């Protein structure tokens, strides 16, 4: 096979007076209004952010100082007790109202996400859907998950034991640029549902999307100051976030996550980290080739591959490798690249020049080390400054950076295998363990293989969306892909302190006056043998 170019393509034409100069985008005044929601901004060096589609300015962003950030935490700490005192069922109603507002006003935020991140509109809608699902889940279930829990006491009837949950206090959330709406919701909303206040630092590149959700939350009657947004450079305000937070939630690179974990450990406060990945897809013998190829396109090229759970390695059984590869290449070549604010494009652009440089370098290095590009493999400046073709390679060896390093772009390597045990071993041969995908004609076999993969989420006959959208199950990484989980009960309860309370009545848990300790111990031993047989013990 030879390298080919997607033939269907569309370019954005800039419109003066709009955010980022993208045709059809909201007016620049809307960006200015959203930025008024930012807390602080005394830094004398504001940040100028540009739109990936056009290279034109999105907005000039005020940057917080250390003092600004600490003031935001002080305001959040004053607001938190009143918010926590509200019954959990009433906090739930804020999230239900927010859910309805998100769906009602989605068109505006679809535009914002596309303009800021360079996504296709379908990929932007994935963020809207995830945000609404998170709001609905915690809007329905958080009160139940936070409710006091009864437990078996040491002495039946005489010992009443239970567990209550208290909010941590003020949670610091550091959000990335690649999923600015969804990851804001996944981290901020459960923290609020648990009764915490939040100070969030979204990435400058995609701050408007987070501020849009913040605006809707206040329209849903979230109390003022319970959620505050600061914009700033990590080098200026990172220490303040770590030092002022009662819990830190971070999404980003593994090196930065390790550095933060060291800082936080000195304070003995909690944290959760979602970090890097080099996610594998395993296509088992007997899998439906057409469905697997279509699934691979979505798994690898959604959001131009700039998704922590996207697939970068595919292992295909030799019996179907050629058929799969041909179908995968054909479907990839049919992707339409575009920069328009509608559903006509299948893939958008990269978000930053740094990502374009990384993708280009990884592909060039793989070629230099013997890899073959089956399709793609080049930037597309004719479409926009940061476009890069969806790229499939074979023959990637251990000498290439692409083999083991996270690319975080629309690039995937395809490998063959002959034995399922070999495929599992190769899929697990990475320091990362965030997401994985298994394709099988036998769902039971697919599930069995999934349990053998060392990844926090595994999707059978899907790339990532099945677990990403199933808010009732936890999401997070193993190994160097992170610590802690978001979504489900874990994604809520991590923002709480567990307190155990036991009330003892009548019977003392020490020998009676005058009773020999040895006799007491003998009686307790007999009691423990009997208690073990009781149900629920």
Question: Any key phrases for this structure?
Answer:
alpha/beta; 537 residues; 41% helix; 6-stranded mixed sheet; Aldehyde Dehydrogenase, Chain A, domain 2; Aldehyde Dehydrogenase, Chain A, domain 1; single chain
Describe the fold and architecture:
The chain has 537 residues and is an alpha/beta fold. It folds into two domains: 64-275 and 489-493, Aldehyde Dehydrogenase, Chain A, domain 1 (3-Layer(aba) Sandwich), CATH 3.40.605; 279-480, Aldehyde Dehydrogenase, Chain A, domain 2 (3-Layer(aba) Sandwich). The chain has helices at 28-35, 66-85, 88-104, 106-117, 121-146, 182-193, 207-219, 234-244, 254-265, 289-301, 321-333, 353-368, 401-404, 420-428, 443-452, 465-469, 488-493, 517-531, and strands at 9-10, 47-50, 57-61, 149-152, 159-167, 170-174, 197-201, 227-229, 247-251, 270-274, 279-283, 311-317, 337-338, 372-375, 391-394, 411-417, 432-433, 435-439, 457-460, 478-479, 482-483, 496-504. Strands 14-15-16-12-11-18-19 form a seven-stranded mixed beta sheet, sandwiched between helices. Strands 8-7-6-9-10-21 form a six-stranded mixed beta sheet, sandwiched between helices. A hairpin with a 6-residue loop joins strand 2 (47-50) and strand 3 (57-61). Helix 4 (106-117) runs antiparallel to helix 7 (207-219). 51% of the residues are buried. The model is unreliable at 1-8 (pLDDT under 50).
């Amino acid at each position: 096979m030879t390298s080919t170019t997607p033939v269907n393509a569309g370019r954005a034409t800039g419109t003066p007076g709009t955010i980022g100069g993208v045709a059809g985008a909201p007016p620049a005044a809307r960006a200015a209004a959203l930025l008024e929601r930012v807390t602080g901004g005394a830094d004398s060096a504001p940040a100028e952010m540009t739109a990936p589609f056009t290279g034109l300015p999105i907005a000039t962003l005020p940057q917080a100082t250390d003092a600004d950030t600490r003031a935001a935490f002080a305001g959040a700490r004053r607001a938190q007790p009143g918010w926590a005192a509200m019954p959990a069922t009433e906090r739930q109603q804020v999230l239900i109202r927010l859910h309805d507002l998100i769906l009602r006003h989605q068109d505006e935020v679809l535009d914002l996400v596309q303009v800021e991140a360079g996504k296709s509109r379908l990929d932007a809608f994935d963020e809207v859907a995830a945000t609404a699902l998170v709001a609905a889940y915690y809007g329905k279930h958080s009160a139940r998950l936070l409710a006091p829990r009864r437990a078996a006491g040491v002495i039946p009837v005489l010992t009443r034991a239970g567990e209550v949950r208290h909010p941590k206090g003020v949670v610091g959330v550091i959000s990335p640029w690649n999923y600015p709406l969804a990851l804001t919701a996944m981290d901020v909303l459960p923290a609020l549902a648990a009764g915490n206040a939040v100070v969030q630092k979204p990435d400058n590149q995609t701050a408007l999307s987070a501020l849009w959700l913040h605006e809707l939350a206040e329209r849903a009657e979230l109390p003022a100051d319970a959620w505050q947004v600061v914009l700033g450079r990590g080098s200026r305000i990172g220490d303040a976030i770590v030092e002022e937070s009662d819990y830190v939630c971070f999404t980003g690179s593994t090196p930065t996550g390790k550095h933060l974990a060291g800082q936080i450990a000195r304070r003995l406060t909690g944290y959760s980290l979602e970090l890097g990945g080099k996610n594998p897809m395993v296509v088992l013998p007997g899998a439906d080739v057409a469905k697997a190829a279509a699934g691979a396109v979505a798994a690898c090229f959604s959001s131009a591959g700039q998704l922590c759970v996207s697939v970068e390695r595919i292992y295909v059984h030799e019996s179907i490798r050629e058929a799969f590869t041909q179908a995968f290449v054909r479907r990839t070549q049919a992707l339409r690249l575009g920069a328009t604010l509608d559903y006509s494009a299948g893939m958008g652009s990269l978000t930053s020049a740094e990502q374009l440089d990384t993708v280009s370098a990884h592909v060039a290095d793989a070629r230099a080390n013997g890899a073959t590009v089956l399709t793609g493999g080049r930037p597309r400046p004719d479409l926009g400054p940061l476009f890069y073709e969806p790229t499939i390679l074979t023959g990637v060896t251990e000498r290439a950076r692409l083999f083991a390093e996270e690319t975080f772009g629309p690039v995937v390597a395809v490998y063959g295998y002959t034995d399922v045990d070999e495929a599992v071993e190769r899929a697990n041969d990475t320091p990362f363990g965030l997401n994985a995908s298994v394709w099988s004609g036998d769902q039971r076999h697919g599930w069995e293989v999934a349990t053998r993969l060392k990844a926090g989420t595994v999707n059978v006959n899907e790339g990532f969306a099945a677990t990403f959208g199933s808010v009732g199950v936890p999401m997070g990484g193993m190994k160097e892909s992170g610590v802690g989980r978001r979504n489900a009960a874990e994604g809520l309860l991590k923002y709480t302190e567990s307190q155990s309370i036991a009330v003892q009545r009548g019977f003392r848990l020490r020998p009676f006056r005058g009773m020999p300790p040895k006799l007491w111990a003998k009686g307790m031993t007999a009691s423990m043998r009997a208690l073990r047989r009781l149900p629920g013990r």
